[in-house]
Specification:
By secondary structure, this protein is an all-beta fold. 0% of the residues lie in helices and 16% in strands. A 4-stranded parallel beta sheet has the order 1-3-5-6, with no helix packed on it. The chain starts with 11 loop residues before the first strand and ends in a 9-residue tail after the last strand.
């Protein structure tokens, strides 16, 4: 997924239905114009620590994580998304959020 950084002017990125399992720190760092990120219907079970930290997603408004395999989010995982207005966690058996 590192090639994704070639598209720094994207506003909407739909990665749903791609069997993604891990989101690593830095994968979205250069997507500074991104407003909507759809990661729904994947197999995401893990976010690396500080995955959203950095300048990349400062303008993100909507984040879709529904229908993955996440069972917890650590405190502060979403703190670095200052403009976030919508987050969809539908269908999660969260143990810790």
């Amino acid at each position: 997924m590192n090639k994704i950084n070639l598209f720094s002017s994207l506003n909407v990125l739909n990665l749903s239905y791609n069997k993604i399992s891990i989101i690593r720190k830095g994968q979205f760092d250069r997507l500074v114009d991104l407003r909507i990120l759809d990661l729904s219907y994947n197999e995401i079970f893990y976010f690396e620590e500080n995955v959203f930290k950095g300048d990349g997603l400062n303008n993100l408004l909507e984040l879709y994580l529904n229908n993955n395999q996440l069972t917890e989010l650590e405190e502060g995982d979403l703190d670095n998304l200052p403009e976030l207005k919508i987050i969809d966690f539908d269908e999660y058996p969260f143990n810790n959020i």
